[in-house]
Amino acid sequence: MSETAWNIRALEFSNCNCSYGCPCQFSGLPTNGNCRAVVAFHIETGQHGKTKLDGLRVAGMFSWPKAIHEGHGEAAIIIDERANAAQRESLLRILSGQDTEPGATIFNVFASTLEKVHEPIFAAIEFDIDIERRRARLRVPGYIEARGEPILNPVTKAESRVRIDNPNGFEFKLAEVARGWSKTRKPMQIDLADSYGHFCHLNLSQSGVTD
Question: What local confidence, expressed as pLDDT, does residue 211 receive?
Answer without folding.
Answer: 82
